[in-house]
Amino acid sequence: MSGRILTNMAFFQSEVWKGATESICREGESPDTLGAMRQAWRLLKLRRRGGEVAAVVTMGPRASLAYGVGCGVLGLRSRQVLCEVFLDEAREGEWTWRAKRRLFQWVAGRSLGVIVNSSAERRRVAVRFGIPEEKVVFVPLCTTVAEVRQEVEQVGAAGRPQVLTAGRTGRDLATFWEVARRVPEAEFVAIVGRGQALPAGEVPKNLRVVRECAWEAYLEQLGQAAVVALPLLASERSTGQVVLLEAMSLGKAVVTTRTTGTVDYVREGETGLLVAPGDALDMAKAVQGLLANRERRQTMGARALVQVQAELLPDAHAARRLAAVRELAGE
């Protein structure tokens, strides 16, 4: 690509991405440790260092808005590609939500385009932001696990196979609780956020809740699971991909909800199983079927791992993202 690609992303896992972009994030920094205004200011300063700018890839809604508005105020062409700008639920009755939507529409209208994490979001983002669908490109996410491998499952403290779920956004914990009640032959583990709300009523006797688990402990627990069950709420926003890909990266059989964030990644019956949103009975049957057939779940997990190795590693993701940026920049 002719011209520099600037970004606020700290995608240091990929040498392909690092070699093709200039990041505002220094060693030990990430967008999570920098405020949105600070990120926008650094991007604008980086533009002034000279040389033609082909694209500015911004990650996150606040940083993307801050940079886009800053370019508008200064009269600059933004050359912006927005990423990780998730759709929230429409609240047409709230003027604050309508104002935010119009601001996003203005910023997106001045941009090169938007990169999304699921194919279903292309049309939804185009409609919400008021831009042509051709300006919205789907790029699959990559795994966050540095060393992908097939971990050997282990039985829990009571000598039963373990079924695990994890994550915060868009999780259908009520369905997971019900699946645990319907599958008493397994131990269930739910890794949730510190302040995350749990379903009302008694926790099933075969279910253990872990609050705010450290990364290493989470991976260890994930590696011990026989099955990963990932029930998600039906939503326009894509959720669940990160835990899904982490489970696949450790060679785990996954049962998850057929929704925006999963259908692009799970090959039904081959690398995972998909069930309807809120269908605890169907998910329980799928989990029981895998628990009853060790060879099937291990084969499914092995195929999921192969899919990750072939398509969903950081460098492969970087190559696709760079190709999408080039496409949106017209190169």
What can you see in these coordinates?
Helix 1 links the parallel strand 1 (4-7) and strand 2. The chain is 40% helix and 16% strand. The chain folds into two domains: 4-141 and 313-328, Glycogen Phosphorylase B (Rossmann fold); 162-311, 3-Layer(aba) Sandwich (Rossmann fold), CATH 3.40.50. The protein is α/β, with parallel strands linked by helices and 331 residues long. The protein has eleven helices and twelve strands. The strands form two sheets. It has a six-stranded parallel β-sheet with strand order 2-1-3-4-5-6, with helices on both faces. The protein has a six-stranded parallel β-sheet with strand order 9-8-7-10-11-12, sandwiched between helices. The model has no long low-confidence stretch (mean pLDDT 93). It is globular and about 65 Å long. The N and C termini lie close together (7 Å).
> How many alpha or pi helices?
11
Alpha-beta content class: alpha/beta
Q: Roughly what is the average pLDDT, rounded to an integer?
A: 93
Number of domains: 2
**pLDDT < 50 runs, ≥5 residues:** none
Which helices and strands occur, and which strands form pairs?
Layout (H helix, E strand, L loop, with lengths): L3 E4 L7 H6 L1 E2 L12 H12 L5 E7 L1 H14 L5 E4 L11 H16 L2 E4 L4 H9 L6 E3 L23 E5 L6 H10 L4 E6 L14 E5 L3 H10 L2 E4 L10 H9 L3 E5 L15 E3 L4 H12 L2 H18 L2 H15 L3
Parallel strand pairs: 1-2, 1-3, 3-4, 4-5, 5-6, 7-8, 7-10, 8-9, 10-11, 11-12
Helix pairs in contact: 2-3, 3-4, 6-9
